[in-house]
Amino acid sequence: MDLTIDTTPLVDRERMGSHRSSSGPGLQVCLYFSPTHKGQTHLCISTGQITAEEVCIAAAKECGILPVYHNLFALASEDLTFWFPPNHEFNVNEYSNLVVHYRVRFFFLNWYGQGSRKTYRYSFTKSRISTVLDYGVIDYLFAQSRSDFVTGQAGVSPPLSTQEECLFMAVLDLWCMAKDYNLSLEEVCRTVSYKSCLPKTHRQDIQRLNRLARYRIRKSLRHFLQRLGHCPAGGHSLKLKYLMQLAAVEPSHGTETFLVHDPGWQQKGEEPMRKFLLVSGENGIQTRSDKMQEWQTFCDFPGIIDISIKQECHEDVRMESRVVTVTRQDDRYLVIKLSLKHHLVHT
């Protein structure tokens, strides 16, 4: 198959046929995927007061997310540096144009239903089980992950050494587009460049290559396309393959890292010790000091027996920060101090 890769315009595609409502006053909720528009759109809330949980429910309805999956989603800030708690109240009348993102926050890599470690969800009907994520959530998670991959947001920034793997992901992306819109791959490639499906750093690296190197890339692309051309897999199988490939090139995908303080050090009259806290579905809670590189596992989620959150007090004066204590089954505990609006650290 002959792709007009270098002559195709570089399209920053938001999925073909995507729709964005015009920005205006109020609260703009960015939705990564809508079944109606087959791409990104915005949910606009112009007046009134509304909680983050109510916004998520409205967004889920627009995106076709079933109620059983609502607790996997949350609202993130426009720059994806912090999450809004469910009880956060937006006074929409005070905003000229506040943008938030409706995102999948909680997921395990083996929730995809692939590989040796499979996870199942028991249904309300006795003796029936199903995969944890349905097609609606997979569609949304794919669109969200694809956006993170291309824009380099949410800490997704694969190194240039993974260029071949990223090229394969670009081909998967184009193939998913063809499946979504019932088009041939040739038709998709006439309007969408494979480079628009790659991270910005990879696009810039390709632009700097000589003609021979770019020819080798086109040859690799043809090889990938030939492999997929005889593949009978459906659109959702391709999206699952994309998600698994992303997890391979970016192991931190789906994890959250926070910079926290150990309140115990401050009580001793010393400077509070800074810690990094890593939370992931696969490895539970891990910590390390800012002077160390290796992560120490505190516990996995089944090992937690109690989590307490208390408002910090200093000389009987209530502070805005919160002291969080996580207790394990062996009575060992982890104490950290968090601000009300705690920012993520993208490493």
From TrEMBL:
Pfam families for this protein: FERM_F1, FERM_F2
Q: Name one GO molecular function term.
A: non-membrane spanning protein tyrosine kinase activity
Question: Which superkingdom is the protein from?
Answer: Eukaryota
Is Disulfide bond among the key words of this record? Answer: no
Write out the entry's keywords from A to Z.
Phosphoprotein
Q: Extract one GO cellular component term from the record.
A: cytosol
* This protein's record includes keyword Phosphoprotein: yes
- GO terms of biological process kind: cell differentiation; cell surface receptor signaling pathway via JAK-STAT; cytokine-mediated signaling pathway; growth hormone receptor signaling pathway via JAK-STAT; intracellular signal transduction
Q: Where is the FERM domain?
A: 25-347
Instruction: Name the PANTHER family on file.
Output: TYROSINE-PROTEIN KINASE HOPSCOTCH, TYROSINE-PROTEIN KINASE JAK3
Report the protein name in the record. FERM domain-containing protein
> What organism, scientifically named, is this protein from?
Albula glossodonta (roundjaw bonefish)
